Amino acid sequence: MSAAATGPNPEEILSGGPSQRSELSAHVWPATAALADGALTLAGIDAAQLAQEHGTPSFIVDEAHFRARARLFVDSFNEAFAQVGTGVDVYYAGKSFLSVAVVKWALEEGLRIDTCTGGEMAVAERAGVPGADMGLHGNNKSEAEILRAINLGVGRIVADSLGEIEQIAQLAQAQGRTADNPVPVMVRVTTGIHAGGHEFISTAREDQKFGLSLVGGQALEGLLKVLEYPQLHLLGAHAHIGSQIQDSTAFELNARKMLELREAVRQASEYVMPELDLGGGYGIAYVPEDQPIDVPALAHSLAQTMAQVAEELGTTIPRISIEPGRSIVGPTTVTLYTVGTVKPVTTDEGIVRTYVSVDGGMSDNIRPALYGAQYTARLANRAGEAAPVLARIVGKHCESGDIVINDVALPADVRRGDIIAVAATGAYGRSMASNYNNILKPPVIAVKDGGSRVIVRRETEDDLLALDLG
Questions:
Q1: Region 73-85: what's the mean pLDDT?
Q2: Which residues constitute the domain of residue 146?
Q3: Which of 17, 111, 425, 432 could link 335 by a cystine bridge, Cβ 3.0 to 4.6 Å?
Q4: Number of domains composing the chain
């Protein structure tokens, strides 16, 4: 999919899209976002004030909204699965966005932390996460990362291959782990469910880099292999089927396959795995037309599916874990940019499109260029007096594919110095940010109850030059 992904046509955008004076789409913008005389406010603070105080580009995260999203998952899943007689552990998927402050918010709201690298473990450590409340993922973990996880006493290491199971076992033995204090291990499984918004984020297909496939019995072989090592404890199987999934059917099918695999392990070894991890990938709304997944309804449907399948198989329901990331942090954050060059361009089809250049771009949001992700935006510092025009918001990088939003309606009087706000940028914006063109990575600013504070500072040129040894 190209950066200029197919979306609503220009006529739909100009005629059917919300005006810059209309109410905000509640499922797209942060919970405390509001309009005051057409200008955007966040947690009671003018967006223009935030831009002036902290500069642009900046990620603005609504702390109260993050906490509410975290509690929604904890409460919904605990309530639903308590009704079928089991419990749930909610792991915040740190890959979506991780900082010390955000990890502390997650812990305070009852979440555990899922990490994928040594760097993510370091942030979790700095935030005070107990080892037992941390997990380690990754398809190609280094020896140092595995050793760090073992010595931290993480709650589970998710093994991604047969070779990695052996590696974890060898390192565990070298660290003196025995059957009396084994390393808890899960095995990542690809269940063959093709779900997710784009091929690059559909992670349960057989022909890709993650996990062991159900096809050919590889997943079963891996799970049984863990049982051969007394220094390892087989906690269960793990399956993450993709990202940005907005239909619960795929999750229900995945739950069925995982319970069937658990039963296959029992039949082959008489061992009943105590846990299953059903992953994450719960979809959010990026544009007003999107429908975010209904979290309480999803929790209920998964719990009922697990109960039904367990009854069919004549088995118990294991403890469940899930890994929401984007679905917690994504809707809580907006990116503020300052407008620079504005110019109308007539396309080959005779359409006049106004190119609005901002002071960031693919260095702080690579998703549109990577797989055609769509966003919405609005003029944030004022209402705009002119009728809407078809606009394309582009970055300042040396790439024609440096497009933030392919087509969006903006007031025709948009001009240099205006502030543009792009919604739902909490996930995979700052965490995938780069220094392309030696651009400085933006800060992350937390807002709450009329106040703001920097939780990740803006990079400086000194930061860049400190790495350059000449």
A1: 97
A2: 83-324
A3: 425
A4: 2
- The residue to which tokens 């404890």 are assigned: 233
Which DSSP string corresponds to 15-27? HHSPPTTSPP-TT
* Neighbouring residues of 9: CB distance < 8 A, sequence distance ≥ 6: none
First to last CA, the chain: 39
What does the CA dihedral 445, 447, 451, 454 come to, rounded to 10 degrees? -20
Domain termination site, one of 296, 324, 352: 324
User: Do 402 and 423 fall within a single domain?
Assistant: yes
Which residue in the list 267, 346, 348, 398 is annotated as catalytic? 398
Nearest to 255 by CA among 240, 265, 268, 244: 240
Residues 229 and 365 in one domain: no
Q: What is the pLDDT of residue 137?
A: 94
**Are 109 and 258 members of one domain?**
yes
The answer on 204 and 175 residing in a single domain is yes
Alpha helices in 37-161 (DSSP H): 47-54, 63-82, 100-108, 118-126, 143-152
Q: How sure is the predictor about 176, in pLDDT bands with cuts at 50, 70 and 90? A: very high
Active site residue 116: no
Q: Which residue has the tokens 């990890």?
A: 103
**Percent of all residues in the chain with a pLDDT value above 90, rounded to a whole number:** 83
CATH number at residue 365: 2.40.37.10
